[in-house]
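User: Let's play a game. I give you a shape written as tokens, and you guess the letters that built it. Ready? Here's round one.
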């Protein structure tokens, strides 16, 4: 058995092969300078820690100024905007110093905190318009501040502000469906490869935010009065339908990427299985969101996203199993039916594609020998 490892390709050769296969278009993106760091990890950790320590001292000084103007929200907003501007300038400095990057990140997070607190203090309200302003502010930071972690965090801030905007607007349970459509549109878009420094952290943050907003809707019925109207009772069905739409669209894209016609037998089996799983998501909430992340992660060979999706699937199924408003017999029947569906799907796929199963087994054996 030949267990030699495949020859590694240079980035230019890999991009050329992708161009020939019509998978990507345009010129090869510039290499990310973040991956060219040669310092040992423990030195980078100490530099990052010192950056946060320096930022804490700066925050203490700013906190003294804040205490002097605690009754003036507009002053707090200006302090927050000034700190975010300082962070923007620090991120724009040449070089790749870990101390500077972590210091700028801490300054920006503190500035966002001052901005949000001052906004609530100035408007004397927690209505939907406040969260809309926060959403616009976070989107602005995501676009113009060029740092991977910063863009990930500001994207989360934008999604959470949109979540509370819809909550305050009495449109409960719909935000996770909109996030699912955004996840589907961004991960399958070719622009993700053209602008990875901007869109990749946003894509990861949207995937994580999808699970957070999916789980957040479980407490909507506890946090709000049932007299809010139709959206409180049926809004989660609208959101779940949007998630199912994103899952079905992703399934169609995967089928087309495998060069199957939509009227072929494998495509019909895959779509029927996806539709049945979408039906289960109305009974077991969160199932479609986790499966959407798993499907995207498996298609892109992304282990991080795959691990998050599997953990989310286990969490949502466990949450459904321990719900008290549904009888144990009913939940057992649902979970048993779901398991039988997955086993039947695997059996049909193994019968339709025996060569794929044997190839997978050979890859696993070679990996075990390596």
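Assistant: Ready! My guess for every position:
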């Amino acid at each position: 058995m030949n267990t030699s490892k495949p020859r590694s390709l240079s980035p230019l050769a890999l991009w050329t092969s992708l161009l020939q296969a019509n998978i990507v278009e345009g010129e090869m993106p510039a290499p990310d300078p973040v991956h060219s760091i040669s310092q040992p990890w423990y030195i980078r950790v100490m530099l990052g820690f010192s950056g946060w320590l320096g930022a804490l001292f700066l925050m203490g000084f700013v906190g003294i100024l804040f205490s002097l103007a605690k009754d003036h929200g507009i002053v707090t907003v200006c302090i927050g905007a000034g700190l975010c501007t300082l962070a923007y300038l620090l991120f724009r400095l040449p070089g790749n110093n870990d101390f500077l990057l972590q210091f700028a990140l801490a300054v920006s997070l503190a500035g966002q905190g001052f901005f949000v607190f001052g906004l609530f203090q100035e408007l004397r309200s927690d209505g939907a318009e406040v969260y809309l302003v926060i959403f616009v502010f976070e989107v602005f930071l995501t676009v113009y501040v060029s740092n991977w972690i910063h863009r990930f965090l500001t994207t989360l801030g934008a999604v959470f502000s949109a979540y509370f905007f819809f909550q305050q607007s009495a449109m409960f349970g719909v935000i996770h469906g909109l996030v699912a459509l955004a996840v589907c549109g961004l991960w399958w878009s070719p622009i993700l490869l053209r602008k990875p420094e901007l869109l990749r952290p946003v894509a990861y943050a949207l995937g994580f935010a999808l699970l957070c907003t999916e789980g957040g809707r479980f407490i909507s019925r506890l946090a709000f009065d049932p007299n809010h109207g139709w959206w409180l009772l049926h809004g989660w069905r609208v959101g779940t339908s949007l998630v199912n739409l994103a899952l079905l669209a992703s399934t169609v894209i995967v089928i087309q990427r495998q060069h199957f016609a939509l009227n072929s037998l494998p495509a019909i089996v895959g779509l029927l299985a996806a539709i049945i799983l979408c039906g289960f998501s109305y009974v077991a909430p969160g199932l479609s969101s986790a499966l959407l992340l798993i499907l995207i992660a498996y298609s892109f060979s992304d282990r991080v996203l795959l691990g998050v999706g599997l953990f989310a699937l286990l969490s949502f199924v466990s949450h459904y199993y321990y719900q008290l408003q549904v009888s144990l017999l009913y939940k057992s029947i649902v979970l048993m039916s779901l398991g039988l569906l997955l086993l039947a799907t695997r059996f049909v796929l193994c019968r339709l594609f025996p060569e794929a199963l044997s190839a997978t087994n050979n890859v696993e054996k070679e990996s075990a020998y390596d």
